[in-house]
Amino acid sequence: MGKSLFFISWALLCCCWTTQAEIFTSIGQMTDLIYTEKELVQSLREYIKAEESKLAAVKSWAKKLDALTRVSTSDPEGYLAHPVNAYKLMKRLNTEWSELESLVLQNPSDGFISNMSIHRQYFPDEEDETGAAKALMRLQDTYQLDSEAFSRGKLPGLHSNAFLTVDDCYDMGKTAYNDADYYHAVLWMQQSLKQLDAGEEAVVSKADILDYLSYSVYQMGDLPRAIELTRRLVAIEPGHQRAGGNLRYFERLLFKQLNELNQAYQPSSEEPIQLGTYSRPKDHLPEREAYEALCRGEGLQMKRSRLFCRYQDGKRNPRLLLKPMKEEDEWDSPHIVRYLDVLSHEEIEKIKELAKPRLARATVRDPKTGVLTTANYRVSKSAWLEGEDDPVIERVNQRIEDITGLTVTTAELLQVANYGVGGQYEPHYDFSRMSDVEAGGATVFPDFGAAIWPRKGTAVFWYNLFKSGEGDYRTRHAACPVLVGSKWVSNKWIHERGQEFRRPCGLTEVD
Q1: Separation of alpha carbons 42 and 444, rounded Å
Q2: pLDDT at 299 over 50
Q3: In what residue span(s) does the Fe2OG dioxygenase domain sit (predicted)?
Q4: Residue 449, exposed/middle/buried by CB under 10 A (0-12, 13-18, 19+)?
């Protein structure tokens, strides 16, 4: 198919910040879970009502039989001397107690369990829960949010009743710990301990929190604090299976280091661990700091003096003569433009309607094997739509051709992506020498410090290859994690094949 040549991104719907998450990465699909949970709550209420009705009937039986046995046991022979009482005793034990037994054996939970079984196939699994936890940590890193802010629902520009309990924070820390991510394990175990010490009720014990926290702090290289935390653990639970051994090991290790450095022992700080106490370990992405700073709106390079807006009629395209497109420059070199009012609200809703049932975890092509696979650096769900699927898709494809002046005959299908909690696509290139091109969206360009914020119904367009066919490495871009809200975008990749007369080669490699 040749190399990917051009990229156009249509912002369908955006709330707050941008980007992609783990398995249930699509907010569009997660909304179904909201209604599923509502249905299950109603089913639970019906079960409770049935149990209460059953219990009321049993209580009524118990009250009646209690009165009868008080009379019968006061004078058994006198009671049975009356033939009616003798008959009723036989009847009760033969028939009525059997009816009571049947009542007690009734299981009102059958309907609820059946409903649960039907819906369970759509429930998130452990991988989804882990992915959601990692998404929160990703947001925490990118937007430099401390665990306290997250726990109390205090996000930039938003304050809600969404909060995390002691047990929630503990589970977040345990997720990080199990992934050998001791940096985040420390932050979340510390927050769990803080809330527990403040008097909040919890299922998890203080000893369990200190166990994970002390070892994670040790892994971060802070031996004095690891010792202090382990001593607190031993004080609470002297017979703890690991604490005593860990404490002796930490103390030996610390004093060995102090002797080698000829330093005196300094007690650990009494200050709680917080964001900034420890440095986040480096990872695979060299421009991590620059990328995340741009996502926060920091370090942006402004070139407004050379940016203009204009009406664009696609070189006298008949379909644009009466209603030309409004075009704005977003960046001068490489040239990135935005088109306004490209999609109507009705078209957006139709595209979302078509895409939603087809959404699947977005993939990238493994550079070693060439096989499409999921990746942690690309977290979203996407669907691919053809012109034959609906007249709206055909109109959108035609509109892209009219605006760009390029043929879409050799282009990719229209991709629709929905980004959920912490969804992202880390810095990447869209051009490739393979037969297919990995999919992705655009928000920030670390190489030249640009950030392009999504706006509903608009389209952003740039060339990611020079006219020579060589890749423009300046167009390495990333989609920042969605902090609040749900982002829908639609992407179109137009290949260089078929554009020979529409965008002829230049005289140099970088024309």
Answers
A1: 44
A2: yes
A3: 410-496
A4: middle
Instruction: State the Cα–Cα distance between residues 385 and 359, nearest whole angstrom.
Output: 11
* Domain 126-261 indexed as CATH 1.25.40.10: yes
Neighbouring residues of 153: CB distance < 8 A, sequence distance ≥ 6: 159, 160, 161, 162, 163
Which pLDDT tens digit goes with each residue over 9-35? 555 533 222 222 233 446 666 778 888
Query: Is it the case that residue 179 has pLDDT exceeding 80?
Result: yes
Structure-token pair, residue 233: 């653990």
φ, ψ for residue 326, nearest 5 deg? -85, 120
Q: pTM of this prediction? A: 0.76
Task: Report the chain's terminal Cα–Cα distance, integer Å.
Answer: 23
Q: Kindly report the CATH number that applies to the domain delimited by 287-491.
A: 2.60.120.620
Please give the structure tokens belonging to residue 242.
Answer: 């690991």
| Eight-state DSSP code of residue 382 | E
- Mapped onto helix, strand or coil, the DSSP state of residue 196 is helix
Q: Which two tokens stand for residue 258?
A: 């102090």
Beta-carbon contacts of residue 149 (< 8 Å; ≥ 6 apart): 155
Query: In this model, does residue 49 exceed pLDDT 60?
Result: yes
8 Å CB contact between 411 and 502? no
